[in-house]
Each structure stands twice: as C-alpha cells, then as structure tokens.
Amino acid sequence: MTDKTYDISAIYLKNGKAVPGFHGKNACGRCVGYSEPLAILQGAQNHGDRAAMIFDLSENDEEHEQAIAKLRVLCKMVQIPVFAAGAINRLEDVKKLLYAGCARVFLNYGKESNHQMLQEASERFGREKIGVFLSWRVRDAEEMARLEKYASMLLMSDVNRDLAEDFPAMPVLINDEEKERCTEIHVPETEYRSPVSWQELKKGSDGLVPCIVQDWENGEVLMMAWMNEEAWEKTLDTGVMTYWSRSRQELWKKGETSGHYQYLKALSVDCDNDTLLAQVAQVGAACHTGNRSCFYRELIRTAQKDTDPQTVLEEVYRVIQDRRKNPKEGSYTNYLFDKGIDKILKKVGEEAAEIIIAAKNPDPVESVYEMSDFLYHMMVLMAEKGLTWQDITDELARRH
Q1: Helical spans, DSSP H, in the chain
Q2: What does pTM read for this prediction?
Q3: CATH of the domain at 12
C-alpha cells in the first residue's frame, strides 16, 4: 500500500445526472453546481485525481441499465480509473459494469446476499476487479482473511476511518459523508517516478530538454515541446503533460486553455540522455491549428503500402462503414447489409467453419485466406452492431 494519499471524486448518479449524495451533500466540493458527470470527471482528472467513484442510485432495472450505459461513455471519455458501486444485486450486474469499462466494482458487504457474491465475483472476474464496502469492525480473523482473499480494496465511511487499521496491507478508500471536500483514497495506482533524475539529463544552454510527444494508442507523433525542471516535476507529480514556453517564458499545462489535455502514459529518454519521448493519451487536437498532430503537412512519401495491422484493419472498417452510409451498386458489402443481420451472422458462421477446415491443411496459406475472409465478415457485423475496433481493443487491453 502506498504511503501517498490521492484525491478521488465521488459522484452520485441518478437518471444519468450527478445528484447530491446520501446525506444531501455533494461528495466533492469542487463539483458543486454540476449536473453532468462527465464535466465533473474531466475536472477531477485535470485537477490531478487518480480515480473516481460513481455510486449508482438507481431504484429499478431500467434506471440501472441507463446508469450502465452512462458509465460506458464516462469510462471511454476519461483516463483515470472509474470505480462503480450501488444497485448491484446479482453477478450479471458486476459483469456489465466491468464490461462497461469500470476498473473495480464495489459490493456492499452489509448485505448478507453479497457475501457469497463476493467470492463468485472474485473467482470469475479476478480479485483485483472487486472491492467491498465495510461499515463495522471485523473482529473475526477468518472473516478478515476472507475479505482480503476476495477483494482488492475496501471502502469505508469517514466516521469509520479507524477501521482501516484492521487492514494495514490493503488499500482503503475513505468516503467522507459529512464534509464538503473530496474523498481521500489510498490507491496503488501508477506513481510517476523516474529512475533517471532531472539532474542526469543533458540540458541545452538554456537549461531545457526537448520532449517528443507520441500518441499512446497508435504511435502517431503529435508534437514537440520543451521542458525545464519545473515542467518535469509538474508532469511527474500530476500525470498531465506540462511544458516550458520559450516564447512566453512561462510554464504551461497542455490543454489548460483549449481543454486538449495530454495524460502521461509512458516516458522514455534517448541513448544520450538529451531528448525525452512522452507517450500520452491525447484529448482532442495536439496542434494549436486544430489538427490532431503538429506534423500534418506531408512533404514526401514513397510509394509503399502501409501494412501496419491497426492501420489496415481501421482502413478496411472505414470502407465498410462508408458502404453502409453511401451504398454502391454491385457492392458485396451492401448486399450483406441489405439482407440484414441473419445473412451476416450466417456468413460469419460459415467463415469460422472454413477456418477450422483450412487449419487441418498443413499449408498455412489457406488459413491466411480464410482468416482474412472471417475478419472482413466480422467487421461487417461490427458495423451492423455499431461497434468499432476501439471497442474491441479496449476490451482486449483490459484482459491482460
């Protein structure tokens, strides 16, 4: 458990909106006056919070499904981990919340029915995905061992803060229900500590180090900026990219005026210790012109085909989506869309069977052809269902 205490914003969700909490007060003083949870989360993220807790106050299944849909959007739009709690009555609810993108799901241990669900959820989805509410001191050593075995984090109210001492090796969230301030959290999330100090970097005569900024997901080079020691420290302290402006001679947090923040994902230094490479999650455009990258003006390109897997899959999918929006006579893709979901599913099944048959052949080339056919038909199905490659890769990323 880390010794450092991080802020966490607590949001009470009702009908897709942020509402006052159980005791009539907003759990985060900064958030008073907001009703849109995304605005609260983005503000908390930009403030340097490392996580957010969302309590679902739904009173029926319809409201709960609406809350899950909202959480799915929120988890995609923010970089900090989102924890979910409230209105969890069955294992299926845990699954839906995790599939929506929540980093952890918290079960109320005060409900006896959740005692068995805790074990089932932990065994099915992994202990690191499960947390529990706890509002009383556990005196039974066997019960404490059970909680530590099946949950990775505890949530307690501020009035029961001392209960955290019972679990010295377990991260504990303190949900302050009595004061209008942000909840405190002890979370072993990434701490931005570099094994190379600022003093070890080779600076220019002006004391600055160039920093190349790259998109974390696709490797696109977004921009280049400069750092001084203060910018370096601010970046490592907050996880939000901060630079030194040579023209204005002042520190600047990227996105502070535009909202196009950059969240640090990885930081590297070159072999000479004189250039930094930051991989970031970019919100909006990196360039002040409104372009995604500052390097949008292409000067030279050789005649070669880009076979990067992500690029190819995204390009084929874009063509499929375009065919759906702008039908083309004689297009096989449009034929599938015209026939509907049953025809598409039939083709996906047929192509899956063809892969099995081809795999029995010692020549792997046939498998390449059949797998390619399957991926194409799968992408048609993705377009029919409104899914994207980002949805798929996000889910795969959460599994490793």
Answers
A1: 37-47, 61-77, 91-99, 113-125, 141-150, 229-238, 309-325, 332-339, 341-359, 364-385, 389-398
A2: 0.60
A3: 3.20.20.70
